[in-house]
Each structure stands twice: as C-alpha cells, then as structure tokens.
Design a protein that fits this description.
Bound molecules: 3-isopropylmalic acid, magnesium ion
Number of helices: 12
Helix content: 40-55%
Strand order of the largest sheet: 2-1-3-12-11-4-5-10-8-9
Structural class: alpha/beta
Shape: globular
CATH superfamily of the largest domain: Isopropylmalate Dehydrogenase
Strand content: 15-25%
CATH topology of the largest domain: Isopropylmalate Dehydrogenase
C-alpha cells in the first residue's frame, strides 16, 4: 500500500478546528482509495512561540522538508501582535514558504451555483465565474531588502528578478493551457518599475505559448473589474501583495473566504492551506467553515501525492453536500437546509465520500 508522509500544522485561532475536519475527510478517502497517510503534527505560529519562543521551530521545518506535503491551517492572533516582526506568527509562515521555495501560490475561485445567494454580488454577474489566481509567493514587498522601521520613517522594497518572474509566469501559462487559455497579468506598470519588468518577462514567456492569450490590467482596475464582471477572468497572474489582496476579494465573490483553498508549490514539498487567516473572533466556537481546508487537502492529494481519484472524490463530495443544502454559518444567508457546525460539516463531507 502506498504510504505518504504529511507534516500537519494546525496553527492558531480556528486552525485546529478546520484541520481536524480535513483530517477526518483524509482518513475517509485514504481508506476508500487504498493509501496510507503518516501524519506528523508540528507547531508553527503563535502556538510555536508559546512553546519554543520562535514561530518556526527547527523541528517543524525539518519535518516539512522530510514530508511529501505540508497541510496547514492558519496562524496569528492578538496575543502575539506586539512581538518584534521576526518573532511574529506570520514570520513563521513566510519563512516556511521561503525555505520550501513555494513560490507558486494557486488560488482557484469558483462560484458554486447553489451558493450564488451567499455572495454579496448580484446573481447575474456570477454566472460562469471560474478563475485561478496565480500569486507569486516568495518575493516582492514581503521579502524585499532593505526594509526597516525607524522612529520617523519606515520602508519596504519591492524587488523582482527576471528569473523569479519567469518561473511563475510559466506556471500561469501552463495552468491557462488546461483552462480557457487566457492569462491576465495584474500589475501597476503605470507607476512601478517592477511591473514593467513583469510585463517584459510575461511577454517573452508568451512566445512559448502561442495558444494562450496575454492581457495586462492595472491592479486598481482589476480590483474594480473583479466586482463589476468577475466572469471575465480565467488566470490572473500577479505579484505577492496584489495576489494576497485580490484573492481575498475573489473569495467574497464566491460567497465566503471560508471556501477558497490554495496550493503553494515550486520546491520539493508544497504547502496546502486555506486562503483565510486564523479568525480569532470566531475561534473555539465551532462555527468556522472547514471547506477551504478540506478542498486544500484535496489539492494536496492531486498535486503532491498524485492521488487524483481521491482528490476528485473530495471535490465531488463538497459539491454534493452544498447542492443538498448543508451550510456553515458564513454561507447560510438564505437557503440553508440546516446550519452545520464546523465538525458537522466535516462529518457530512466524510460520510458523503463513503456514499459516492
Ligand atoms: C495569506 C495570508 C498570509 C499572506 C499572511 C498570514 C502572512 O494573508 O496566505 O493570504 O499575507 O500571505
Ligand atoms: Mg491573505
């Protein structure tokens, strides 16, 4: 029987609750599709700071590097906000992404027709929304040097090299080839030199992809277009900070930030995590939506483990239970058959997998 090693990081806030549900679902698919998952639970973020004094302990990084994939919940919380930047929970995640060379963050945003009512946009603009945000994840303002906060002045640096842009652009074009063959590079080329380089590189990569179209859009316009006509987008290729912002916006178009999964890949080991944060305001109440994390576990099966039948089963089960009307609180605005807790939602999806 095939056996895979998974480094599981629950993190902070709602992280533990949503990861527990993803594990419930993974247990079910592994039994059904005949493979074994060896889970190693590790600390990162605030939970690691409380125990080890650092947000990414060596042991966690070592486990991640020795695993087939990392499944991650969420990190952060008010308790650790006052710490020096390099000791904050978020620094742990950023370091993990960098150490694993997880430069390509794939964030699919699809509107399920049954959830049209959960979106804050009008139903008529939601028809056919199916986009993929390809976010560069290990460069840009998040990592650029120099950076500093002085008494009366602070600065960050946006730096991108040709090779950093080229490798993420290829991922976007490859992904577009398997979709509607349209890449939209979102940038701020009317103001930023880095964006000019992004355009140069994307244009030269495009010459290897005659079948894929490339269009450019300024990020302010893209933020507006996303709510004006979200169905116009296929693949959005963009740098780290713009991708962070636009993917949160895209999630609300789909109904809730609790729905969107992600895969962060590029190196030997990828990180699979929901796009949302640790939501300290609702942590421990059992109301979090585990679907984003469960779908992230599905992406892990597909991309890291090659278990595509099991990944398909997760996607199908989620679609079915949504069609049947099961809703967590965040997506229950109008048409809930019953409002499920986080744990109930995980169990319903797991049972649905058995029933497929
Ligand atoms: C995300 C999150 C992170 C990011 C934070 C927690 C550092 O917002 O994954 O989108 O900004 O990348
Ligand atoms: Mg974010």
């Amino acid at each position: 029987m095939k056996r895979y090693k998974i480094c599981v990081i629950k993190g902070d806030g709602i992280g533990p609750e949503i990861i527990d549900e993803a594990i419930k679902v993974l247990d079910r698919v592994s039994a059904k599709f005949g493979f074994e998952l060896e889970l190693s639970y590790q600390l990162m973020g605030g939970a690691a700071i409380d125990v080890f004094g650092v947000p990414l302990p060596d042991e966690t990084l070592k486990c991640a590097l020795e695993s087939d994939a990392v499944l991650f919940g969420a990190i952060g919380g008010a308790k650790w906000d006052g710490l020096e930047r390099h000791l904050r929970p978020e620094s742990g995640l950023l370091k993990l992404r960098k150490e694993l060379n997880a430069f390509a963050n794939l964030r699919p945003a699809i509107v399920f027709k049954e959830l049209v009512n959960a979106s804050t946009l009008k139903p008529e603009v939601l028809d056919g929304v199916d986009m993929l945000v390809v976010r560069e994840l290990t460069g840009g303002l998040y990592f650029g040097q120099p950076r500093a906060k002085e008494a009366d002045r602070a600065y960050n640096t946006m730096v991108y090299s040709r090779s950093e842009i080229e490798r993420i652009a290829r991922i976007a074009f490859d992904a577009a080839r398997m979709r509607q063959k349209r890449v939209c590079l979102v940038d701020k080329a009317n103001v930023l030199e880095t964006s000019e380089l992004w355009r140069d590189v994307a244009q030269s990569v495009k010459s290897d992809y005659e079948d894929v179209s490339l269009e450019y859009m300024y990020v302010d316009n893209a933020a507006m277009q996303l709510v004006r006509n979200p169905a116009q987008f296929d693949v959005i290729l963009t740098e780290n900070l713009f991708g962070d912002i636009l993917s949160d916006e895209a999630s609300q178009i789909c109904g809730s930030i609790g729905l969107l999964p992600s895969a962060s890949m590029g190196g030997k080991v990828g990180i699979y995590e929901p796009i949302h944060g640790s939501a300290p305001d609702i942590a421990g109440q059992g109301v979090a939506n585990p679907i984003a994390t469960i779908l992230s576990a599905g992406m892990m099966l597909r991309y890291a483990l090659g278990e595509s039948a099991a990944a398909d089963a997760i996607d199908t089960a989620v679609r079915k239970i949504i069609a049947e009307g099961y809703r967590t609180k965040d997506i229950s605005l109008f048409d809930a058959k019953e409002i499920c807790s986080c744990a109930e939602m995980g169990s319903i999806i797991a049972q649905q997998i058995d029933a497929l």
